[in-house]
From TrEMBL:
GO BP field: methylation
Keywords: Methyltransferase, S-adenosyl-L-methionine, Transferase
One of the record's GO molecular function terms: methyltransferase activity
Name of the molecule in the record: tRNA 5-carboxymethoxyuridine methyltransferase
Pfam families in the record: Methyltransf_23 (PF13489)
Source species, domain of life: Bacteria
PANTHER family: METHYLTRANSFERASE, UBIQUINONE BIOSYNTHESIS O-METHYLTRANSFERASE, MITOCHONDRIAL
Length: 242
């Protein structure tokens, strides 16, 4: 499956629809949005359509070449670029490739602004594996800190919302909300049915995204936090995830 095919499939569409709905509970009019590792700008384009000024920073020229016109693109490495400061910074499905990018992302949030982090949820991995593979395979994933992703053919690091929330607090942010993205979709083994039932599935996912315990086992977590007014992050006890 290619990146575009993933984005257009029901599970990709849900990922972006849920992120937009969750963010819309927190955004104020005319906010400036910086989408770090924003890829081809699907999150940014949705927010630009709602009237926000959206900029994508990504190191991949191929991704940036695919950006819609209403989004500004900047080719740069998050770790080293001078990013400036924005009202809202998105770091969506990036920390699993490099958790140290959390610190520069927070530095790009203006004091009092918002950081939005989405990543794969480690709590979901044994259950999704049990549904889609075998109980033995699911057992083998328990407590595993990494997983192979076929889409990008690489190993990724797995976190929980609790870990990232703690990290955000340590880096000078106040957590505001924890959502789950795809609390149901990935536990339905029949992918074909998701095309026919997409509208109902999206309504169900939207109803569950903020509800515990459903959100806690969703395929991805979505954490939103406010950067504290002090410009310097609190001291950090350990270096990982940064
Ligand atoms: C899985 S894609 C996610 C894209 C987008 N956030 C989304 O969810 O649709 C990860 C993106 O992060 C970008 N990326 C990873 N590390 C980066 C870095 N250090 N600087 C800039 N971009 C980076 C990659 O080029 C890729 O486009």
């Amino acid at each position: 499956m290619t990146w575009h095919e993933w984005q257009d499939a029901p599970w990709g569409r849900l990922r972006y629809a849920l992120a937009e709905a969750n963010l819309s509970r927190h955004l104020t009019d005319h906010a400036t949005v910086l989408d770090l590792g924003g890829g081809n700008g699907v999150d940014a384009a949705r927010l630009a359509t709602r009237g926000f000024h959206a900029t994508v920073v990504d190191r991949s020229p191929e991704m940036l070449a695919d950006l819609p016109d209403r989004v500004t693109g900047v080719e740069a490495d998050i770790a080293t670029a001078d990013l400036g400061t924005f009202d809202v910074v998105l770091l969506h499905n990036v920390i699993q490739y490099d958790p140290s990018l959390l610190a520069p992302a927070i530095a790009a949030v203006r004091p009092g602004g918002l950081i939005s982090v989405i990543a794969l949820n480690r709590h979901a991995v044994p259950l999704v594996t049990a549904v889609r593979s075998t109980p033995a395979a699911a057992l083998a994933t328990l407590d595993q800190p990494t997983q192979r992703t076929e889409l990008f053919d690489t190993d990724i690091q797995l976190f929980t919302a609790e870990e990232i929330t703690d990290r955000l607090s340590a880096l000078g942010c106040t957590p505001l909300a924890h959502y789950g993205i795809r609390a149901v979709c990935d536990y339905i083994a029949d992918d074909t049915s998701k095309h026919a039932n997409y509208a109902d599935l999206e309504r169900l996912e939207l109803a569950l995204t903020a509800r515990s315990p459903y959100r806690d086992l969703a395929r991805m977590f979505h954490v939103i936090a406010r950067r504290d007014n002090s410009m310097s992050p609190r001291p950090v006890a350990s270096a990982d995830p940064g």
